Amino acid sequence: MKLWGGRFSKDTNELMKKFNSSFYIDKRLYKQDIKGSIAHVRMLGKVNILSTEEVDKIINGLEGILKDIEEGSLKLEGDYEDIHSFVEANLLERIGETAKKLHTSRSRNDQVAVDMKMFVKDEVFNTVFKIDNLIECLIKKGRENEYLMPGFTHLQPAQVITFRYHLMAYVEMLKRDKKRLLNALYILDESPLGSCALAGTTNEIDREFTASELGFRCITKNYLDSVSDRDYLIEILSAFSILMMHLSRLSEEIIIWTTPQFKFVTLSDEYSTGSSLMPQKKNPDSLELIRGKTGRVYGGLINILTTLKALPLAYNKDMQEDKECFFDAIDTVNICIDVMTGVIDTMKVNKEEMLKSLKKGYINATEVADYLVKKGVPFRDAHEIVGRIVLYCEKTNRAIEDLKLEELKSFSEEIEEDIYEYIEYSNILKKGNKKYILMEVE
């Protein structure tokens, strides 16, 4: 069954049928398409375009189709142009000619627009739930492992922090990701149903009714924009891309931490793989795949931006290409969040290895400078003095705290015995605004 064809004298070329069909992709919208159709039919009954008997007959037919799809007795397969023609063809087969009244005062343009918005709302709320789970997992892992570790800049040891504090940086990133998605959901929450092809209908329909039935906060205001708007997909794909960038950064850090050179964490066997040649290998493939799949999500964003960049109003068939990239992106994002949650939940944190690493990078050097400043030494001079101390430590292969007081005083007479307590790693985090590193800020 086609939803058009009266003005055509020749059948569509078989290659064109295959090229034009989107059913293999948009069949995923079956639930939203049926739900939207039911709301539309109820509205047609409310405004007396359809009789009560017609409304009941169509709705019963649609609910039967949905039930059969859900139970598996009706397969989403066959030679259909799209999900809309699949639903109408099956409805016609079940209830007869009354099914042809379903599409009154509606176009596939506003139909697919409302279907896609409903799908995005359903699925993105699920993604937000997954983000919450990952946030809770990071917080829990941090609380259980509040050990001292070096913080890095340029991948070089910089200053002392805690493992919990490092994980909390990613919690902040994920909170922003969640806010971006929720904001996008609020903006898109306007019903386009009733816009028809591009200019509404001469029938007196009730768009506010269908918006309320479908759970939208309001209706769209401009029909041309309503059927051609895909901004919300761009915005969510952008938010997904930022989210994947955060997951990729976290993946990279954990990959580094698992190396024999670091040994900060040990991945569970559940999220690792081996080598077909080297029996000693334990590879962090879960994290490498997250890192790699980030490019797929970026690709989805570039895909839809490129598709839309020069389209005239209103709807164009190019827009059919919005779904495949979005479906792939949301599937990728969801599994990556789930895998990262599993990685974090099951990995072991190696306290002793992190403590050992504190000695390797002179990460209390800045605190020596702060100590000298408190003694009245100008910061630029203090910076120079500590630089010479570090150079001396490198030559003698010792940490700053391992130097004798006489050695330290050779660089500045302002240094006294209290320097050792001041630059002791755990004490550092109790001074000044560093105390916030030890505080629960969630």
Q: Given the helix and strand composition, which structural class is it? A: mainly alpha
SSE ordering: HHHHHHEEHEHEHHEHHEHHHHHH
Walk across the major sheet and give the strand order.
Answer: 1-2
By CATH, the topology of the largest domain is Fumarase C, Chain A, domain 2
Count all strands and give the number.
6
Profile the largest sheet. Answer: 2 strands, antiparallel
The CATH superfamily title of the largest domain: Fumarase/aspartase (Central domain)
- Which whole number gives the mean pLDDT? 95
What report would you give on this structure?
By secondary structure, this protein is mainly alpha-helical. It folds into 3 domains: 14-101, Fumarase/aspartase (N-terminal domain) (Fumarase C, Chain B, domain 1); 108-146 and 161-356, Fumarase/aspartase (Central domain) (Fumarase C, Chain A, domain 2, Up-down Bundle); 365-423, Orthogonal Bundle (Ribonucleotide Reductase Protein R1, domain 1), CATH 1.10.40.30. The chain has 18 helices and 6 strands. It has a two-stranded antiparallel ribbon with strand order 1-2. A two-stranded parallel sheet has the order 3-4. Strand 3 (190-191), helix 8 (207-213) and strand 4 form a beta-alpha-beta unit. Helix 11 packs antiparallel against helix 12 (322-346). The longest helix has 37 residues, at 108-144. The two termini are 56 Å apart.
